[in-house]
Amino acid sequence: MDPTVEDSAYTVLLVIYRLTFHPLAKFPGPKFAAATKWYEFYYDCIKGGGGLFAYEIDRMHERYGPVVRINPHEIHVSDPTWLDTLYPGPGPVRDKYAPSAHMSGVPEGRRVGKKLDDCVPVMTERKLAAFGTVDHYIHRQRRSAVKMFVSKKTVKTFQNSICNTVEALCRELTRFATSGETFEISTYFLSWATDSVAKYLENDTYGLLDDGQRRKDWQSTIDKVVELTPVVKQFPFFMPFVLKVPNWFMRIVSPDTNRVLLMHKRMRSTARRYLSLHLAAEKTDPQTPTDELSRDKVDAYRAILNSNLPDYEKQPDRVAQEVLTLLVGGSATTMRVMSRVLFHFTSTPHVMSRLRSTLDAIMPMPTVRPELEVLQRQDYLTPVSMSPSRILMDPTIYNNPYEFQPERWLGPPAQQAHLMRFFVPFGRGVRMCVGQKFEFELCDVDRVRDVDAKRDCFLGQPSKESRGVRVKVRERSG
């Protein structure tokens, strides 16, 4: 039979199966979405520059109800009370949906089986970071290896180093205050966050705050990584392919992508060196790590190599991917949160006034470094996040969810417990407020265009027309 005829027949049978006999066929939703993932591809990679499928899902729920079939293999639930079922505590097994997991990983993919509907590749997971791990039990192992490393207790020991990078950021803000120049502040938040996270993860800093060109290059690189995530979700083979492309060629085609590949290569080299030291130490005295691998020294490489993970989980490629994921995840999310928090504080005077009063009481001089516990005891230093999630923006849970109201978290304990039950923003890490020393003025910043999330590129990205959060800064006199 003509191969073209075979392919056409297979496609027709596949569509009939998905719409009629598939286990998810009974769930409501657009028939086109149920028949093929090209529907999702169109919204995530083409329409409006991509990243719009999450908002198309919102439209589906408005039309079809709280449970919707959004592609041939996946249903989506918008009922907030179902959170505890989807994200239970220890016990129930929850594997991660493979296309979502592999957005952040570099899987070695291979297709197995020949069933009619076998169109989701089964991936080996030897090279994936914990965040990109599909299997529940493998994820639990990997997460345990870095859990203590990112615990509040461990991060607290690093507070002085974070304060040092905050002071470096303040020096840049002072320079702008002196010149009166308008600038886009997200780039500086990203540089501060990256330098802080890199120092914590690798015991080294990239010096982005001190190098204007590197700072711009890194912002461009992160923008490229974030915008590629919908593409990688649709085509899991993309990243493994890119990793095999020579650096000289990638430098010509996409300098931003090449910078990530070079960083991954450097991290592999570092992981390989640490692994050699680790193996040598085990041969001499397994109970006494070398000075470079001392448990008293903190970085991500030591945390993984000194963990109880099996040896095959400590290979350089996987360790490097774990460190890179932590670096990008910890810095890019912090940048986005800080930019939005600055916008909302600056555009809400009564909130800013109360925050300043709180900070003035615990930081009477800019040189004062309050302990983390002191900051956490202040009511108005509650974590704030803006997210496109239907749950975080559900008016039946959060009154006027699109208004910046930090005081909603200061009510009676029962009210706080209710709100916290549904508080599921993406992001983590230390958020250090730098507003004690400076006053900010927003310059041609439009909330809808420049701040609100309009594209789902793993991070909630503003519109393509966004100019960023542009500000002028001046030093406070009192």
Overview of this protein structure:
There is one protein chain. Mean pLDDT is 76; it is low at 107-125, 383-389 and 424-436. With 478 residues, this protein is mainly α. The protein is 51% helix and 7% strand. Helix 9 runs antiparallel to helix 10 (186-202), helix 10 (186-202) packs across helix 11 and helix 14 (255-284) crosses helix 16. It contains 20 helices and 9 strands. The protein starts with a helix and ends with a strand.
- What is the terminal separation in angstroms? 84 Å
**Main beta-sheet annotation:** 3 strands, antiparallel
How much helical structure, as a percent, in the residues? 40-55%
The helix/strand order is HHHHEEHHEEHHHEHHHHHHHHHHEHEEE
Task: Compose a concise summary of this entry.
With 478 residues, the chain is mostly helical. It has helices at residues 3-21, 31-35, 38-46, 53-64, 83-86, 98-101, 136-147, 152-156, 159-179, 186-202, 212-234, 238-244, 247-253, 255-284, 300-305, 316-346, 349-362, 372-376, 413-421, 447-451, and strands at residues 67-71, 74-77, 108-110, 122-124, 183-184, 438-442, 455-457, 459-461, 470-475.
Keywords:
globular; 3-stranded antiparallel β-sheet; 51% helix; 9 strands; single chain; 478 residues; mainly alpha
Which helices and strands appear, and what pairs or packs with what?
Elements: H1 3-21, H2 31-35, H3 38-46, H4 53-64, E1 67-71, E2 74-77, H5 83-86, H6 98-101, E3 108-110, E4 122-124, H7 136-147, H8 152-156, H9 159-179, E5 183-184, H10 186-202, H11 212-234, H12 238-244, H13 247-253, H14 255-284, H15 300-305, H16 316-346, H17 349-362, H18 372-376, H19 413-421, E6 438-442, H20 447-451, E7 455-457, E8 459-461, E9 470-475
Antiparallel strand pairs: 1-2, 3-4, 5-9, 6-9, 7-8
